[in-house]
Design a protein that fits this description.
Blueprint: E1 11-16, E2 21-28, E3 31-38, H1 50-65, E4 70-73, E5 88-89, H2 94-99, E6 102-104, E7 111-113, E8 117-119, E9 128-130, H3 133-143, E10 150-155, E11 160-166, E12 169-176, H4 178-188, H5 193-196, H6 204-215, H7 222-226, H8 228-234, H9 243-259, E13 269-271, H10 275-287, H11 299-310
Parallel strand pairs: 1-4, 4-7, 5-8, 10-13
Antiparallel strand pairs: 1-2, 2-3, 6-7, 8-9, 10-11, 11-12
Helix pairs in contact: 3-11, 4-9, 6-9
């Protein structure tokens, strides 16, 4: 535990996802007294084991500081999580999330779970859901106030989310299965064989070649372009060892080709996620002439503090 000169902790904030969780002991939105992380996402925990993991992770915090409010976001609120929490309708803002917190009775203080957001089919929008990204997206407004009036967020990962913000509200979002498609094609298709039969190596040139191929496809779909991962190797245009980077570039490039609007060069665009993956998206975005796209850190932590504040859970600082 750190010896911190600032006010005593007033909130425990937790981002609890599929594969891992992070917890912060917070005195205010910008002052973290202590933090923890563990590879204990909901997929690693047997049914009924969530409270045990929770107490093992931060039990000493509650022993020392007592009944601090606890607010968590992410897949912990899914059907396979600690307690299934209903979605709120899109559009949604911080106050809407705060009004629909779900409490789990865990002495010495309730454990509150942030609801996910659901979007129904209508117009050009497909039905869609998110858990955890809503807290990150709205929390990002604290670090990037220029997004509040109108902006877009990219959240790379297994299922990449593109989120539109208008007037401080999450108004629309799209999910691209780019990361999962890459994993499936790498492990279970003919496209992954050249790399599996050799020693894969990182190749920036192959990645950019893949992005540029996707960018220049015109009306040709990704289904037709994917086979070039193999055919370019066979034609001597691509080294087998670099073919996975080419495949990654194809998939990310096709995502950007689909997601970027005509006015995105003039709309604030920011990234949230793993730094290495965000950097890869920055390099790909530059090939679409979209530059100066910075990465927002700890957006979930900011969002959890703001939701707890909107819900009236934060005790007054002494």
């Amino acid at each position: 535990m750190s010896n911190h000169p600032d006010p005593s902790p007033r909130l425990i904030a937790i981002d609890w996802g599929t594969s891992s969780l992070r917890a912060w002991l917070m005195a205010n939105e910008h002052d973290v007294v202590d933090s923890r992380s563990a590879e204990q996402g909901i997929m690693q925990i047997e049914s009924g084991g969530f409270e045990t993991v929770y107490r093992e992770l931060i039990g000493d915090w509650t022993d020392e500081y007592g009944a601090l409010p606890v607010v968590a976001c992410g897949m912990i609120g899914s059907r396979g999580g600690w307690s299934e929490t209903a979605y709120v309708e899109c559009p949604a803002d911080l106050s809407e999330l705060a009004r629909h917190l779900q409490a789990v009775n865990t002495p010495p203080a309730p454990f509150y779970i942030v609801p996910g957001v659901i979007q129904h089919t209508g117009g050009n929008r497909l039905a869609n859901v998110m858990r955890g990204e809503e807290t990150q997206a709205l929390g990002a407004l604290s670090a990037a106030a220029e997004l509040a009036d109108h902006g877009r967020l990219i959240m790379p990962g297994t299922h990449c989310k593109w989120v539109t913000i208008d007037q401080g509200r999450l108004t629309e979002f799209t999910t691209y299965m780019t990361g999962e498609l890459f994993a499936v094609l790498r492990q279970h298709s003919i496209l992954g064989r050249p790399a599996r039969a050799s020693e894969p190596r990182n190749s920036e040139a192959a990645f950019i070649q893949g992005v540029d191929t996707a960018r220049g496809m015109g009306c040709v779909g990704i289904g037709a372009a994917l086979f070039s991962t193999r055919s370019r190797v066979m034609a001597g245009e691509l080294e087998a060892e670099a073919s996975l980077d080419y495949l990654s570039g194809l998939l990310i490039g096709d995502e950007l080709r689909s997601a970027l609007g005509r006015d995105d060069a003039h709309v604030p665009l920011r990234l949230i996620g793993d730094p290495a993956l965000c950097h890869r998206y920055q390099r790909a975005l530059a090939r679409f002439d979209v530059t100066e796209v910075s990465v927002i850190e700890d957006a979930a932590r900011h969002g959890l503090w703001q939701i707890a504040t909107a819900a009236g859970l934060i005790p007054t600082a002494s």
